[in-house]
Write a structure and sequence with these properties.
Length: about 800
């Protein structure tokens, strides 16, 4: 029932450019309704699928809009409406596939209306009736109170056909493109696809309603060099990609819901099993990303200027249920990014309202840089600002520019920052930098502008890395710290084992109490208190902070004002939920409550914590929609079990030495010790120390390299958790090696560190591999040979066995 403003409803389907070159504008139709009585209800209102749609008039937003519009708003409402609204839908679940049969009779009730709309609360389960509807996207800074779905009566037409374009279709294609035909790049892609017989059209009742341009020549090896394309399918078959690159896609918004069907037909007509889409900063965000999957970059791969999305034939049959909950993530930390990526990769749900608020860096350039590094962020609203207030009652956060963002689930992962005596390096124009930014800061100054003296302050292990950087650039420095962190004590114990501890600079026991602008000779004047209580002054050109990090003052103020429990860190339970069930926390910002031992979450893998956060957010959304039973009242959430290894890698201020240490979580030991019931293998060769911990089950539990030779943190993380059988020798044989470092970094071990081999291992562990399945074993073996053959750049020392296929 209801009437909706005609011109506003038209904006829903016609106000935005279609296809890959523009996003739909946020319609305001639902806020400007004039209701009239109607009846589109069915019997069985007491059955399982019973949806009552929200009415935006009750929110008061309608009256506010009228007040702002004045007399013009009154004139607008006098025009005829082009839409009617669904207010209630009831249907038994076993007949849900026939829900669309209601739509044609509904349009017949309103013959003068072209559009049907409906609004749902963000936590509602999306009914089967909406299979032909299109979700209207909101603007970046406007997270509306409800979700708007729109449908045109023509979307009920069933004669949707696809075929290759001919030159005779060219003028009609240009008509569909509209203003986009003036884009020279778009026109070149369409013309190139037409010349290669790879331009596909979609038509309905003889009219072209969609066009897709494909470049059929794609270098798979080039894509593999930069991106982690899965080499094996879920059935452990080696996957041979037959790519076509989607270069342009334009569809009439009325038929947007047919997008996946259209792309499947495109693959068939151009003879490809997969489509890829390359997105760079020069292109607008495409309207195909909701059906394509983002592909992560390969570790250590160079810049390629774009991010990659892929759609395979098998994905066409997989339908995800929409999840419209407004998930607001504050902080672009590793944990926050991992949480967002996991939500977007969820195999069951399509999260449509994800927002990331980050205060890292300045301006839009940093947001664009984030999106260029992480493909999945192209499907997330990105806002650069600081959160200054959290309103738990109205479920809103306020940004420093006064913008209010509503949320259903708030995730705090902003991390911690270097702060001393109330001074933050982000404030003011004094030469004070955090340890993580020292190398970039010195690099930006140039050789002639380097400081003549620096003070490194703090007892974190990052201080050693800073000292090594200053040594390498010839900058004199003073090292001061009030205390030593457990990780730094571990490094000092390893250095003592290698007998180089005496050559490492010792920190003066001093506490920094003040930072002021210095004299003409020095930029900074620092005040200290010695361990005996006496005061000391020092002048320097640069202060480097490697001290204990604290929560950002803005975030701390929000937590304090909103009465969320804080005990040195944001306190969370086993589900990473705070004392507010709608607010989650993770990363270095949070710690577990004392019921779980009070452990700091920073001692665990940020990536693993992010994935666990995503699982708990998904579970909360399922409980809100009724897909999962509610959690027991007063029950204690089980403690999470962490498995991913944690570690660090830093330079030492002694002859270019480097230390890399990885172990099972949590990261809290102050020395390298044998695992319980296991052994600690140790070798020292040519000044290179290597230790390998193997537990009672024969599984690698820790790895440590220290010496003048380089070592990779990511490779060491791969070793921890592997059974020693993967190392090619038994523990007793490993103990007889002259140098563990040389052996574990040899060319024979390249496959151990391959992303594709690691993925294959995870697939096998997930599915199991019975001993009698010899055929499956042969399939896997053949797939590994194919992998090595097609990725020779990763395995330069490997020799393939001769077979008829090589």
């Amino acid at each position: 029932e209801g009437e909706v403003e005609g011109e506003k409803a038209a904006e829903v389907a016609e106000g935005a450019e279609p296809g890959a070159q523009a996003q739909p504008q946020e319609p305001e139709a639902a806020e400007e309704e004039e209701e009239e009585e109607g009846d589109v209800s069915g019997e069985g209102a007491d059955e399982e699928e019973d949806f009552e749609f929200t009415d935006d008039d009750a929110s008061g937003e309608d009256e506010k809009a009228k007040a702002e519009e004045g007399e013009a708003g009154v004139a607008e409402h006098s025009r005829d409406s082009l839409a009617f609204a669904v207010k209630m839908f009831c249907m038994m679940d076993e007949y849900a596939d026939q829900a669309a049969d209601f739509l044609q009779p509904a349009f017949d009730l309103f013959p003068g209306k072209d559009y049907c709309i409906a609004t749902l609360s963000h936590g509602s389960r999306v009914p089967s009736l909406f299979s032909n509807f299109t979700l209207a996207q909101g603007e970046t800074h406007k997270l509306s109170s409800d979700v708007l779905y729109v449908m045109h009566r023509y979307s009920l037409l069933r004669d949707f056909e696809t075929e290759l374009c001919s030159k005779g279709d060219y003028n009609e294609v240009l008509e569909l493109l509209g203003e986009l035909s003036e884009d020279q790049g778009m026109l070149e892609q369409v013309n190139a696809a037409l010349d290669k017989n790879a331009l596909v059209k979609a038509s309905c009742q003889g009219q072209i309603v969609g066009v897709c341009a494909v470049c059929p020549e794609v270098e798979v090896a080039e894509l593999n060099a930069h991106f982690q394309l899965p080499a094996f399918s879920e059935t452990l078959q080696y996957r041979k990609y037959n790519f076509g690159e989607l270069t342009a896609l334009v569809m009439n918004p009325v038929f947007a819901y047919q997008k996946k069907l259209f792309l499947g037909q495109v693959m068939r007509l151009v003879g490809r099993t997969s489509l890829c889409f390359k997105l760079d900063e020069a292109k607008p965000v495409a309207d195909v990303l909701d059906v394509f999957e983002p592909v992560p970059r390969r570790r250590g791969a160079g810049e390629c200027g774009h991010v990659l999305f892929v759609l395979n034939q098998r994905d066409l049959c997989r339908e995800k249920d929409p999840a419209n909950a407004r998930v607001l993530v504050v902080g672009a930390s590793s944990c926050g990014l991992a949480c967002l990526e996991s939500l977007l990769r969820n195999p069951q749900y399509q999260f449509t309202n994800l927002t990331l608020v980050t205060s890292e860096g300045e301006g839009r350039a940093d947001v664009a840089s984030l999106a260029s590094e992480h493909a999945f962020l192209s499907q997330v609203r990105l806002i650069t600002s600081s959160v200054v207030e959290v309103d738990r009652e109205d479920k809103q956060v306020f940004l420093e520019d006064g913008t209010a963002l509503s949320y259903d689930i708030l995730v705090l992962t902003s991390g911690v920052k270097d702060q001393v005596a109330g001074f933050s390096p982000q404030e003011g124009d004094l030469p004070v930098v955090p340890a993580a930014s020292l190398a970039a800061h010195l690099g930006s100054l140039g050789e002639g502008a380097l400081p003549s003296h620096a003070v490194v302050y703090g007892g974190r292990v990052e201080a050693f890395d800073c000292l090594a950087e200053l040594d390498a650039r010839g900058v004199e420095y003073t090292f001061a710290a009030p205390e030593t962190s457990p990780t730094k004590r571990l490094v000092e114990s390893v250095a003592k084992d290698l007998k180089i501890d005496g050559k490492l600079r010792k920190a003066s026991r001093m506490t920094l109490t003040g930072i002021e602008r210095g004299t003409k000779e020095r930029a900074l004047s620092l005040s200290f208190v010695n361990s005996d209580g006496t005061a000391a002054e020092a002048e320097t050109d640069l202060l480097v902070l490697a001290h204990t990090q604290n929560v950002d003052p803005h975030i701390f103020g929000c937590l304090n004002d909103s009465s969320i429990v804080y005990d040195g860190r944001l306190v969370v339970n086993g589900d990473f939920c705070t004392t507010d069930e709608d607010i989650f926390g993770g990363g270095t910002l949070a710690k577990f409550s004392r019921l779980y031992g009070g452990l700091a979450i920073e001692d665990f893998s940020s990536q693993e914590v992010g994935r666990m956060l995503a699982e708990n957010i998904t579970a909360k959304c399922e409980r809100a929609s009724g897909a999962r039973p509610p959690a027991p009242i007063g029950g204690l959430a089980p403690a999470p079990v962490f498995k991913e290894p944690v570690g660090f890698s830093y330079r030492l201020p002694h002859e270019g030495h480097q230390i890399t240490y990885v172990a099972r979580p949590p990261l809290g030991l102050t020395e390298v010790v044998p695992p319980e019931g296991g052994v600690l293998l140790r070798t020292e060769h040519e000044g290179q120390l290597a230790t390998l911990g193997i537990d009672a089950n024969g599984v690698v539990s820790s790895v440590c390299f220290c010496g003048p030779k380089p070592s990779s943190l990511s490779r060491c993380q791969v070793l921890v958790g592997l059974h020693s059988a993967y190392l090619g020798k038994k523990s007793a044989e490993l103990d007889k090696l002259e140098c563990l470092y040389t052996y574990l970094t040899g060319s024979w071990a390249d496959a151990l560190y391959s992303d594709q081999v690691l993925l294959l291992r995870k697939l096998i562990l997930a599915q199991g591999l019975p001993k009698r399945q010899t055929k499956l074993r042969e399939t896997i073996q053949q797939g590994v040979l194919e992998l090595v053959k097609e990725n020779v750049q990763d395995f330069p020392k490997y020799t393939l066995p001769y077979t008829g296929g090589y």
